[in-house]
Specification:
CATH superfamily: Dihydrofolate Reductase, subunit A
Number of strands: 10
Structural class: alpha/beta
Strand content: 25-35%
Number of domains: 1
Strand order of the largest sheet: 5-4-3-6-1-7-10-9
Radius of gyration: 15 Å
Low-confidence stretches: none
CATH topology: Dihydrofolate Reductase, subunit A
Mean pLDDT: 87
Shape: globular
């Protein structure tokens, strides 16, 4: 069976989105990243949180709009209690368990890639998150949505898989230790 991966680009101070979910900060850092290109071929399904699905796309209105700068064409599953009337080519699930099960079934031996900080935290709490790939952009945002936040604190042990510097970022790949 495949693994569950949370991948996100973040600022050096740990934010994946600016205040109010603003993603425009990301545009200058969306450039060539061979590791991400290779990863995309190993992703079998996306599991997307409600806020991420409804959120701000830094490429909105361009040919690069959507996951992986518009190049994602595989199955996508959104966890939300409020699906839109028009399904937009994705499958909606009211709870994480059924959404994750559907994404895993679709992914087979490939990765289920999580998009959304809160959804990733929930998968982690359920013991379902296997790996984290943080693409660190050389910028400080100072406020916004953190890569991982757990009010009251929560220590999660990780093991480094790899670190790679690319022209516009640094990829840090970690395994979640249980």
């Amino acid at each position: 069976m495949g693994k569950v991966l949370y991948s996100a680009t973040m600022s050096l101070d740990g934010y994946i989105a600016g205040p109010d979910g603003d993603m425009s900060w990301l545009t200058p850092y969306l450039g060539p990243n061979p590791e991400i290109d290779a990863l995309q071929r190993r992703i079998g399904a996306l599991l997307i949180g409600a806020r991420t699905f409804r959120g701000d796309d830094p490429n909105r209105g361009t040919d690069k709009e959507g996951a992986f700068s518009g190049t994602w064409t595989g199955p996508s599953f959104v966890v939300t209690h409020h699906p839109p009337a028009e399904p937009a080519g994705v499958e909606f699930h009211a709870d994480l368990e059924t959404g994750l099960a559907a994404a895993k079934a679709a992914a087979g031996d490939d990765y289920v890639n999580i998009l959304g900080a809160d959804l990733a935290r929930q998968c982690l709490e359920l013991g379902e998150l296997d790996e984290v790939l943080a693409i660190i952009a050389p910028v400080l945002l100072g406020d916004g949505t953190r890569l991982f936040q757990h009010p009251g604190g929560s220590r999660v042990r990780l093991e480094r898989i790899s670190v790679e510097t690319v022209p516009l970022a640094t990829n840090v790949w970690m395994r979640v230790l249980r």
